[in-house]
Amino acid sequence: MAYNIVINKRFISRLTEVLIFLEQEWGKKVADDFIVKIDTRIYSLQHHPFIGAMTRHQGIRGILSPGITVCIIK
């Protein structure tokens, strides 16, 4: 059973910043590859929610990626 993933505005904002930086510094391919990694992690967390690390908040898990928390679920 897949869980619903809720992506908040802060995640979108941070992801946008990271993607802009990656594209400016390393090129479009690197930014595109990063998006694929993020999508894969979101899919993994959606279908296997207990693989994410526990956060300091009870009942919430997340998968970390460099500089951002990919997503959290409760």
Layout of SSEs?
Blueprint (H helix, E strand, L loop, with lengths): L8 H18 L1 H20 L5 E2 L6 E5 L2 E6 L1
Antiparallel strand pairs: 1-2, 2-3
Q: Could you explain how this protein is built, in words?
A:
The chain is α+β, with helices and mostly antiparallel strands and 74 residues long. The protein has one domain (9-73). It has 2 helices and 3 strands. A 3-stranded antiparallel beta sheet has the order 1-2-3. The radius of gyration is 13 Å and the shape is elongated. The model has no long low-confidence stretch (mean pLDDT 79).
Q: Could you say how many structural domains there are in total? A: 1
Q: How many H/I helices?
A: 2
Shape: elongated
Q: What is the structural class?
A: alpha+beta
Series of secondary-structure elements, N-terminal to C-terminal: HHEEE
Percent of residues in helices comes to 40-55%
Alpha carbon gyration radius: 13 Å
Strand order of the largest sheet: 1-2-3
**Main sheet summary:** 3 strands, antiparallel
How much beta, percentage-wise? 15-25%
